Description:
By secondary structure, the protein is an alpha/beta fold. The protein has 10 helices and 7 strands. Helix 7 crosses helix 8 (174-182).
Amino acid sequence: MRKTFNKDTSEITILMLDDEMNILETLKSNLERSGYNCLITDNPEEAIKIIKDRDPAIDIFITDYLMVKITAIQVVESIRQFDRQLYIILLTGYANNMPGIYAIQNLEIDSYAEKTSDFEDLMLKIEIAIKSINKVNPGRRSDDGLQLHEKLKKMRLESNKTQDEVATYLGIGRTTVVNYEHGRIKPTLENIRKLAELFDVSCDYLLENNKGI
Length: 213
């Protein structure tokens, strides 16, 4: 789920994947000096799990192209199976192996940056990512066009309820509520009715702009 970023950079979470920890540590240091919240890992499977399970969600994912026994192609393919909206930046020091124009045209990524000693190109692409996400999701500033999972999270936060409280009200596990809010699964019609009562809205409002429920 993509956010709008009309907020302080400390509220933006970036996950970075590279098999060279020294590069990750340097990147993390640079980005944190700019105010970003950064997570790093040199394990592709861990990166995929973080993106799938973390709440609040990762805003931007930066992945190295060529890693030991795997490339970004496989990592991105795995992520896109469950998250079509995450903003992904491909970072590479092997531009000859994966030219930028080819990567953008053929991979399910949103941007491309080459590794440089000062990471200037990457920092620029991160700023572009933030502006791009705002343009793609202008409706996120209001309720217009929000999907069910976005409405559920927005209403819960506005009502100062925890995921545990919502889960208890519905008689389900917290993990199920997390999955509702990430759009991985949809509530049953009975739980739609209960959620409408909990947040004092109509079922029609919750179901607007949503199909397949």
